[in-house]
Specification:
By secondary structure, the chain is of the alpha+beta class. The chain has helices at about 20-40, 175-180, and strands at about 1-5, 10, 50-60, 65-75, 80-95, 100-105, 105-110, 115, 120-130, 145-155, 160, 165-170, 190. This is Late embryogenesis abundant protein LEA-2 subgroup domain-containing protein.
Length: about 190
């Protein structure tokens, strides 16, 4: 408020009443909500799919066999890249002699972290030594289930999402079918969450 030459007070500018403050607070709440929703949609996880290809086995020594396969990671998203901080794969085999499922941790031959751009597939080689006698399956070995666990986060532009754990189980893979025909199995086995 400013005084005029006659000693009366004049308003210096517009004064906000309760209605203007309520409208301003409502507008700010809507703006913050809109930013939060857009950020959540943009950084929502992409749908990653895994499959097992090139399954094979090769004798090492005695009853030891090297089981090899390629883990294909597909990122169909056109906007979000994927950063893998770790990928592990386990082979699970039911052994009648043990009466339970045995599990073998494979070695994934890929340096981490691994960045996967949008709409670009990645191939990860994996292998493990398998003792056929230890599992009571020296002659015929049933197909094995591949269990994959990946620690990932998604990248859109410069922004990263939080870390997610992706767990998938692949349909049974027959590592020894390719050996019997002396070729690498060309079939692809899909994995599901």
């Amino acid at each position: 408020m400013v005084t005029s030459g006659s000693g009366q007070f004049k308003r210096a500018g517009p004064v906000w009443g309760p209605r203007q403050y309520i409208l301003a607070a409502t507008a700010m709440t809507l703006a913050v909500s809109a930013v939060a929703v857009v950020t959540t949609v943009v950084l929502s996880p992409a749908r990653i799919t895994f499959s097992v290809t090139d399954a094979s086995s090769s004798p090492v020594e005695g009853s030891l066999v090297a089981l090899n396969f390629t883990l294909e990671a597909a990122n169909p998203s056109r906007r979000a890249g994927v950063e893998y901080s770790s990928v592990t794969a386990r082979l699970q085999l039911y052994s009648p002699s043990h009466g339970t499922a045995a599990s073998l941790k494979t070695d994934v031959h890929q340096a981490m972290p691994l960045h996967q751009p949008p709409a670009i597939p990645r191939s990860l080689r994996a292998s493990v030594l398998f003792d056929r006698e230890a599992f009571g399956s020296n002659r015929s070995t049933p197909p094995m289930t591949v269990l994959v666990v990946a620690q990932v986060r998604f990248k859109v532009g410069l922004a990263y999402s939080r870390h997610y754990e992706v767990r998938v189980s692949c349909q049974p893979v027959d590592f020894f079918a390719a050996t019997a025909t002396a070729t690498v199995a060309a079939t692809s086995v899909d994995c599901v969450a």
